[in-house]
């Protein structure tokens, strides 16, 4: 029996866990009409994993641009480092701020592991000592943060997560070029958000990059993810009014999910479907 993950097994900012169920529903409706799913902006691979579970006979290509696979491969090392950190923090209340001494001990543990192993998954390790919403991808970044005891009891477990996936690592345009000829392919497009808020990787994407992605939509079956935090939706609405059938998302349907950040602010995540 194949294990089904509802969220990525290792922390990943921007993973589409809140859309998994709806995305699965869209895939089910495509049964028999597609033979390939190409996850051009694979991130944590969660959408690829979902696609393979829902349509097991389909070829599913996961574009692992961020080398998430490397993080999955060293999960036992990550768990070992985290066990040492948990021992260090034994007796510290959950969510409590670490003292300078405890913080220095955590950093020394991670530095020692990095020295010994050559590379450690600091993104995952950092989740156990950083406040919610804070991320670190290197020892240097980790060293800049205030730390808290946020260690979770259980080990990370990634068993079978990548089973059946074809893994690629390429710029999305290159991969699209390889798969474009197949009229039975579904393209999944979840590019970094165009937003004024600085995320981890999001702020290096500029308007031109988004327009380049829109180019791919013409004549393809796709599921495109965005949010009204990004001005792409407004732009597409303008293009739809101006160019009607020639607009990039003409005829597509939109599913929306509202996310509440706090009592004053909320935004909508969107899944735009054309099949
Ligand atoms: C919003 S995330 C995708 C999240 C993914 N759907 C998930 O559920 O985990 C966007 C991803 O696109 C990647 N990316 C950025 N530039 C890219 C490029 N030129 N080609 C392919 N992927 C790229 C980012 O590194 C990031 O992992």
Task: Please explain how this structure is put together.
This protein has helices spanning 20-29, 46-54, 68-73, 75-88, 100-117, 122-126, 139-142, 172-179, 207-215, 232-243, and strands at 36-39, 59-63, 166-168, 185-189, 221-227, 253-260, 266-274. It has 275 residues and is α/β, with parallel strands linked by helices. It has two domains: 17-67 and 169-274, Rossmann fold (3-Layer(aba) Sandwich), CATH 3.40.50.150; 70-142, no CATH class. A seven-stranded mixed β-sheet has the order 3-2-1-4-5-7-6, with helices on both faces. Strand 4, helix 9 (207-215) and strand 5 (221-227) form a beta-alpha-beta unit. Helix 1 packs across helix 2 (46-54) and helix 4 (75-88) runs antiparallel to helix 5 (100-117). It binds S-adenosylmethionine. S-adenosylmethionine is lined by residues 8, 12, 14-16, 41, 43-44, 46-47, 63, 65-66, 171-172, 190-192, 201.
Give the integer mean of the pLDDT values: 92
Q: Cα distance, first to last residue?
A: 30 Å
Within CATH, the superfamily of the largest domain carries the name: Vaccinia Virus protein VP39
- What's the tally of helices? 10
Question: Taking strands numbered 1, 2, ... along the chain, how are they ordered across the largest sheet?
Answer: 3-2-1-4-5-7-6
Shape: globular
Query: What is the N-to-C succession of helices and strands?
Result: HEHEHHHHHEHEHEHEE
Low-confidence stretches: none
CATH topology of the largest domain: Rossmann fold
Provide the descriptors you would attach to this structure in a database record.
Rossmann fold, 7 strands, globular, alpha/beta, 10 helices, single chain
């Amino acid at each position: 029996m194949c294990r089904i993950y509802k969220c990525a097994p290792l922390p990943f900012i921007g993973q589409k866990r809140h859309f998994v169920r709806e995305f699965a529903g869209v895939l089910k409706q495509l049964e028999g009409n597609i033979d390939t799913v190409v996850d051009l902006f694979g991130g944590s691979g969660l959408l690829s994993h979902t696609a393979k579970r829902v349509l097991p006979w389909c070829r599913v290509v996961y574009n692992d641009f961020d080398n998430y696979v490397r993080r999955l491969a060293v999960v036992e090392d990550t768990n070992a480092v985290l066990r040492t950190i948990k021992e260090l923090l034994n007796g510290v209340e959950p969510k409590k701020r670490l003292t300078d001494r405890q913080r220095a001990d955590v950093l020394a543990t991670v530095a020692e592991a990095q020295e010994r192993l050559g590379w450690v998954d600091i993104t995952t390790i950092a989740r156990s000592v950083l406040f919610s919403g804070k991320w670190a991808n290197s020892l240097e970044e980790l060293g800049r943060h205030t730390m808290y005891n946020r260690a979770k009891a259980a080990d990370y477990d990634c068993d079978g997560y990548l089973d059946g996936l074809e893994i690629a690592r390429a710029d999305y345009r290159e991969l699209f070029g390889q798969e474009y000829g197949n009229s039975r392919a579904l393209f999944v497009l979840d590019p970094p958000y165009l937003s004024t808020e600085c995320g981890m990787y999001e702020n290096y994407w500029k308007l031109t990059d988004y327009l380049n992605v829109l180019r791919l939509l013409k004549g393809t079956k796709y599921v495109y993810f965005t949010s009204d935090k990004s001005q792409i939706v407004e732009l597409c609405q303008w293009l739809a009014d101006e160019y009607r059938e020639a607009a990039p998302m003409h005829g597509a349907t939109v599913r929306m999910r509202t996310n509440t950040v706090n009592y004053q602010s909320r935004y909508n995540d969107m899944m735009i479907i054309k099949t």
